[in-house]
Amino acid sequence: MTTDRPTVAPTTLPAPRPAPPGPGPAAAPRGRFLARAFGVTAVLSAAGSALGLLRDLLLARYFGANQGTDAFLVAWTVPETAAPLLIEDAMSFLMVPAFALALVLREERPDGPDPVRQVVRATLPWLLLALTTLSLGAALGAPQLVDLLAPGLADPRLAVTCTRITALTVLPFGVAGYLAAALRAHHRFTAPAGIYVAYNLGILVVLLSCHALWGVRSAAIGVALGSLLMAGLLIGPFLRALRTGPGRAARGRRSRNALVLIPLALLPVGAFTLTRQAQVFIERYLGSGLPPGTISHLNYAAKVSQLAMTAGILICTVTFPLVARALAAGDLTAARDRVEKDLGQAAAVVLLGTAFLMACAPSVVALLFERGAFGPRDTAATAAVIRVYSFGLLAQALIGVMIRPYFSLRPAVRRAGDPSPDDGGRRLLDWYPAAAMALGLVVTVTVGLLATPRFGALGLAAGNAAGITAAAALLLRGLVLRGIPLRLRRVLGGQARLLAAAAGAAALGMPVAGLTADPLLSTVLGGLTVALAFAALGTGLGAHEVRGPVRAAVRVLGPVPDPPPVADEGNPPHGR
């Protein structure tokens, strides 16, 4: 792979490039714009998550947890794999830095050929061809996929039918991920944030209208329809973003500021995403040999647990273009500061959600799912899995934050005039994230095989949590090796304070949630206790990700003491 980005030490970074004269329309957002972008993304993502939760509620109500839902969930492995690969992870990791570099070049040479349109012409046709091939291949190979993913299914025919339907999602998912990456690089977040609203609306429409006629196949058809709506939502904004750029042709002799495509950059990114998603494959494989309904319990638990993780990832979804721009311009210090801040803020959000789930899992599951074909035994099994899953939520969120700057240092394009050094063994660091995830999978498989015979689904959840935590620890070290000099003592100290606050909040919230058998009242009381305890403990322990919002909230009610000096920031207060 040919590139000009650093791999090991900060000293190998190129010198910072001069900023373009005057603030252009694509200048990095700051202040109010960043807050508005996060607000819009949070609201629309919350709406998409709420509709996704409603989708899962209807699946549980109409079909319960049985062989039929197990068959659909095996088929759902295709879009569950395609979505991270083509929307959330690999496509974003590749194309946001590529478009960010193109925008930097556009600002530096406003009179030259338009690099943004050059990137589109060089990548989009090949992408469409590859996606069409993958989609057809998954549909034709559905029997083999089902046999590979869940060999223990008693009757795989329904799973094969649903897999052939869900295979159609690969093409629109890839198009949606590409267009969303381009729009986010242009700092346009509204349409990309709404794609899961469109996706889940498509599923709900088919599920509500056709569940009695088509059974669980209606969910698979809804997934295919929702994927088409996702791509359709982004086409208009993408075309408008291209039209707002300079109307220059990109043909002619290549200048220094032209871009060179590096197709092989896809390989380590795709390998990382697939090894990360392989945790789901392991669960499906081992769970297919357990009693019917186990895969469904794992699925419902994962969907609820990951709501907290998704909320934390929203932060770096908005800030990722800023990190990519800083790295494209050679500003390593700004990128490091932003990544450290993202790690702390994402951890605070995820750990608050983790403490809530630890304390209130039984009441949350009963409140959401316990109706229709989903009974009390399903509630107890799902709640137990949620509590075990929650041990790995922080690691999942931290990996989501760290992997973005990691791959931004090896973008899919480079400047034509920049040198392409032969850095030998340093290129192996491109594969470090995939290797870290592979080692995490070894931990997952080992724990799963040892614990599943005795603990069933809880053993699978424990393996998931252990494996993802091991991978996160490895990737934290890898980010420093890559060239971003994180201040590890500061980062780990902040994480430890947040972990202590979350553990205390969960310990206080659990007995309060158990005071009443009413699911709604138990969830409210337990949730309030967890939130207040986390705020108090986080502030007392000196976690500035908690202390800052708490101080801002208290200022609304009355005056507060002046904050400590900057030198004491992040240190636990003494004598309190």
UniProtKB/TrEMBL annotation:
It comes from the Bacteria. Residues 13-26 have a biased composition (Pro residues). Keywords: Cell membrane, Cell shape, Membrane, Peptidoglycan synthesis, Transmembrane, Transmembrane helix. It is a multi-pass membrane protein. It is found in: Cell membrane. Residues 1-26 are annotated as: Disordered. InterPro entries: Lipid_II_flippase_MurJ/MviN, MurJ. PANTHER family: LIPID II FLIPPASE MURJ. This is Peptidoglycan lipid II flippase. It comes from Kitasatospora purpeofusca. The lineage of its organism: Bacteria, Bacillati, Actinomycetota, Actinomycetes, Kitasatosporales.
